[in-house]
Amino acid sequence: MATSGVTGDTPPWRYLPVALALMLPIVACVGWTWMQAHDAQRLEGETAARIVRAQAESILTQSRDMLGRVAEQAGKPCAEVLPMLQRWGTLNPYFRSLVLVRERRVYCSSAVGPVDASLDDFSKWKINIVSEHWQISVAGTPLAPERPAILIGKSGADGTGGIVVVDGRYVQDLVNAVATMDDLQLELVVGKNGAPIRSDSWGGAAARAVPLRQEDADEAAAAGLRVHVLAPPETLVRAWSRSMATYLPVALLLGLGLAVATHRLQVSRRSFKERLRRAMRAGEFLVHYQPVYGHATGRCEGVEALMRWERPGIGPVRPDVFIAEAEAQGAIIPLTQHLLMLIERDMRTWPTPPDFHIGVNIAAEHLSSAALLPDVQSFAAKVAARHPLVVLEITERSLIADDGQARRNIDALRAQGVRVAIDDFGTGHCSLSYLQKFPVDYLKIDQGFVQAIGPADEEAPVLDAIITLAHRLGLSVVAEGVETPHQFDYLTARGVAFIQGYLFARPMPSAEFARWYAGHEQPGGAA
Question: Helix or strand or coil: residue 251?
Answer without folding.
Answer: helix
